[in-house]
Amino acid sequence: MRRAARGLLNHAEMQVTNTKSGRKTILPHNQQKVLQRQLSTQEVIERDDKYGGRHFKTLPVVLVRGEGVHCWDIEGKKYVDLLGGFATMSQGHSHPRLVQVMRDQVGKLQHTSRAFYTEPHGELGEYLCKLTGYDRFLPMNTGVEAGDTALKIARRWGYKSKNIPDNEAVVVFAEGNYWGRSLAALSSSTDPNCYKHFGPYMPKFENVPYNDLSALEDKLKKQPNICAFMCEPIQGEAGVNIPSDGYLKGVRELCTKYNVLWIADEVQTGLGRTGKRFAVDYESVKPDMLVLGKALSGGMYPVSGVLGSNEIILTLETGIHGSTFGGSPLGQRVALEAMKVLEEEKLADNAAKMGQIVREELQHVPKDIALEFRGKGLLAGLKLNPDFANGWDICAKLIQQGLLTRPAHNYIIRISPPLVINEQQIREAMGIIKKTLLGHKKS
Ligand SMILES: Cc1ncc(COP(=O)(O)O)c(C=O)c1O
């Protein structure tokens, strides 16, 4: 009991209280099921369906615990997590250092707002700036908020530094982009699933084809009021679209040439996911703003933010931007530890090595099963042949075989596991995918 009060239970233990006597006991995980399992999988699903929104298509598995690359469902079944919370759980589930830091900070100071100074805010900023060479880090909470903040900065920079007439600033986005579900984000989207029937849309948001430098240059040449071009260095949600070599360098050159800010959305591709610290590192280029989220806090607390120069970040003067939780001590403290884990455990290098194995294993799947493999590091997708199967059916079968993932755009099987996955685990997982695909062919 004393260990529980001090927050020192390990992941396989829980504290239970006898409702009659009030006595507290620590139970190992294998005995918890009996007490915990008041609802079946079906009952949990039915309750969700009854009381929650139905805007998300959720696969029928109820997870109760995670450790490293594994998760367990309510029935005690173990899975390898190949989705990683949409490329968020890079440090693995329940990383002991993150769990410890959360516990320590929760017991000390949780939330203050930016009305006051706290230590973790500057500590995280200093760490990120020294690591990346940017001058400043402006923290937010979710990816979409960080993207929105970058766009606010860009518009304001356009008016103050580029002398764009008021309310005329244009932002250009790549077709196929995904940066969240807010009204601004869907206004830039070219996916009807994202934008349809949510109008009217944000004015002066325009699109150019992704991976097309001449289309971008055409747009920049014709439009003097463009303040920013925003794109993902690799489009994740669009199905892992990897641009041609030289695209990122070309974007950098064009944005410099036409005095336009380049905002790189590395919410998904950043922090080791693609095998380097940032996907832009593959072409050794530095965007004007780098947008981060997801793995920044290892899934412990939503932390996102924007990295940029003094000139750019200070475009937002005192009093004109804010967020209740952005920069909170709890979030920044865990993000700092999550960053240190990524760096000290060299998880980008591991992503590069394990990604190579994923490629070796999946790139030769016959074309009647999968049309294409796309991947960089541990951000990968296997595009099924629509004549062969639907991604949902395959993911349901993979779940039965102990692998967790879900499709993008119906036919692309996502592979974005925690970056701590090892060779044996990734080879086994790829073996199960291949066997499941071949088995589906026969059935
Ligand atoms: C590239 C990219 N940007 C932004 C977002 C939005 O992040 P959030 O869902 O935390 O708002 C996502 C989410 O998947 C993303 O992939």
Beta strand count: 17
General form: globular
Estimated share of beta-strand residues: 15-25%
Provide the spatial order of strands within the biggest beta sheet.
6-12-11-10-9-7-8
| Helix amount | 25-40%
Helix count, per DSSP?
16
Helix-strand category: alpha/beta
Plain-language structure description:
- This protein has 443 residues and is of the alpha/beta class.
- 37% of the residues lie in helices and 18% in strands.
- It contains 16 helices and 17 strands.
- The protein has helices spanning 2-5, 29-36, 41-51, 84-87, 96-106, 119-132, 143-160, 183-187, 192-195, 213-222, 247-257, 310-313, 329-344, 347-362, 391-400, 423-442; strands spanning 13-17, 24-28, 63-67, 70-73, 78-81, 136-140, 170-174, 205-208, 226-231, 261-265, 289-292, 304-308, 370-376, 379-384, 403-404, 407-408, 412-415.
- The strands form four sheets. The chain has a seven-stranded mixed β-sheet with strand order 6-12-11-10-9-7-8, sandwiched between helices. It has a four-stranded mixed β-sheet with strand order 3-4-5-15. A four-stranded antiparallel β-sheet has the order 13-14-17-16.
- Strand 13 and strand 14 form a beta hairpin.
- The radius of gyration is 23 Å and the shape is globular.
- The model has no long low-confidence stretch (mean pLDDT 94).
- Bound molecules: pyridoxal-5'-phosphate (PLP).
- Pyridoxal-5'-phosphate binds at residues 86, 142-144, 147, 178-180, 232, 236-237, 265, 267-268, 293.
